[in-house]
Each structure stands twice: as C-alpha cells, then as structure tokens.
Amino acid sequence: MPSSRSGGPLPFLDHLAADSSRFRTVLASAPADARVPSCPDWDADDLLWHLGEVQWFWGEIAERGLTDPADLDALDAARDARPSDRAGLLDFFDRSSERLTRVLGGLPPETPLWMWADDHTAGYIVRRQAHEALIHRLDAELTTGDRTPVDCRLAADGIDEVLRVMRGHEPDPDLTHVPVSAPVTIATVDAMHSWTVTPVRITGTWNGREIDVQRFLVSDGPDAASTAEISGSAADIDCWLWNRPTEGEIIRDGDAAALAAVDAVLADSID
C-alpha cells in the first residue's frame, strides 16, 4: 500500500468521519429528487439511503463481532425499513454513521471480522469504508455542483485498493488467467507512485459457479514490458477507476490495444 511507505499509515477513521460528515451536509440541502449524475438511477434521497445502509451493515458486523458468513442471515431481520421522508433518512444516516466510526474506532485493526475480501480484519473494513465514504461524498457534491478537493494520499491508496482488491486477480489453482494485452503502467503525477497492470481473462469454477471475467494482475512500479501508460493526479485516477468524472486531464499514451483492454476491465461496474 503506497501510503504506508510515505508519511506513515493513513488515518482512515478520520477520513471516514470527515467524508461522511461532508456527504451528510451536502445532501441535507439538496432537493430530494435531485438526480445524481454519477449514479443516474438514483436521486439524492436514494444516495443518502444507500450510504446509510452500507454504514449500518458494517456497523452491525463490527458491533456484533461477526466472523461467520452464516451469521449474516440474522442481519436481515434487524434491518430498518427505508424511512419515507428526508428527516427520517437523515436520522438513520446519523445513527448508522456515528455507530460505525465509534465501534471501529474502539477495535484493534487486527480484530477478525467477516469481510467479502481476503483481508478479514477491522483494519480493512475501516479502509474500505473510508473509500466508500469518499466516493459517495463526491457523488453528493456532483449532485449539488459543489465539488471539493480529494486528499492526495487517500486517493493514491484508493488507486491501490481498486486495482488490487476491486479489480485485481491473485492467481488461484482453480482458475485460469490468460493475458489479453501487454502490461500498462498507471502513474500518479503528484503521489510519486505507479502501478503496472496486465489485463487478464479469468475462467473456471469459483464457489460453485462458472466465471468468465476480466481483471488485472497488479505490481508496483513501472515495467519494461509495458506498452502504454496512463497518468494523472492521484485524485483523478482514483475517480477514473471508479467511473467518476475527473477534474483534470488523464494522459493516455502508447499501444491502443493495451489501453482498450484496460478500459474493458473498467467497464465492469463495481458500484
């Protein structure tokens, strides 16, 4: 994780609290039916409910100390129905967000908790939720037209997470991966870090189902085998990887086929 090697570990809990607060402030003044341009199927109230539900869910995981996926079924019985008005939605979000930061803040990072990713710890849940709040804070700001800057180190860590966890692939004996293009370097112009990704097609049986998807093999730094490079600020690359609009320009140079293969991986929604 690049942020840990320059300037020490990131204060993910502080970022989670700050971006959740900004999200709430922005949406509190937005018309309920205002469309979210980065999530066109949602209006402002849908976005408010979505992040509230996400933070409620992980707050339940953390507060109950759940580690077994079989325990997740019990969460459905505890879910609140969606409130019918803005005041109810804000109250639900406030309670969910406060509990999430409070409970996670009281757990050692190594605390085992259920997580869909390979890292089953409270520390990763804090990291994941910091990035969740960041992206949806941006969605809220795009809804009202009041966009604010993204922290460079947090964005660089977001790039690392989205490449490795959300869109990455670790070789697995039950799965076959075949490169579909030459490697491509993704470089930040302000965070002093780069990654090399190789788009691969993955086939096989995973958890009892047949899969056929495209993902990245990821390594740190540039690679002499790269035939193309994508560069920009850390904030813009993080937004681009999440299919959100950038503020600055992202430069794409080199082999068109390799760049198209990267785009094909990103076309698979992860929202």
From TrEMBL:
<dbReference type="GO" id="GO:0046872">
    <property type="term" value="F:metal ion binding"/>
</dbReference>
<dbReference type="InterPro" id="IPR024344">
    <property type="entry name" value="MDMPI_metal-binding"/>
</dbReference>
<dbReference type="InterPro" id="IPR034660">
    <property type="entry name" value="DinB/YfiT-like"/>
</dbReference>
<dbReference type="InterPro" id="IPR017517">
    <property type="entry name" value="Maleyloyr_isom"/>
</dbReference>
<feature type="domain" description="Mycothiol-dependent maleylpyruvate isomerase metal-binding">
    <location>
        <begin position="14"/>
        <end position="140"/>
    </location>
</feature>
<dbReference type="GO" id="GO:0005886">
    <property type="term" value="C:plasma membrane"/>
</dbReference>
<protein>
    <recommendedName>
        <fullName>Mycothiol-dependent maleylpyruvate isomerase metal-binding domain-containing protein</fullName>
    </recommendedName>
</protein>
<dbReference type="Pfam" id="PF11716">
    <property type="entry name" value="MDMPI_N"/>
</dbReference>
